Task: structure prediction
Amino acid sequence: MFYTRTLEAHLREHPPQTIKEAVVVLETLTGIRRSPTQVRLFLKQLGLQCRKVGLLPAKADPAAQHEYQKNLEPRLAEAHTGERAVFFVDTAHSRHEIAD
Result:
């Protein structure tokens, strides 16, 4: 418990990316090697959490985005005046059902 505040400050300032990295960091700072399970419990006691990493979308093409926006703005202006209806849909989840 002597090192707890020092370790917490270090881990908050330099968060480890993995439990294996945390094991190495704690061993380096204290000279005591702990199992990954014990390190995970210690980090949890400190209030630190594992964060899941998500994928970033592929890099967008600025020229294509500009062209899309250039075509979209007049249509949105028409929608504001009531001349046109504009719908945004998620094509990945569209469903067509036929009623009998």
About this structure: The chain has two domains: 4-45, 62-92. Residues 4-45 form one domain. The chain is about 50% helix and 0% strand.
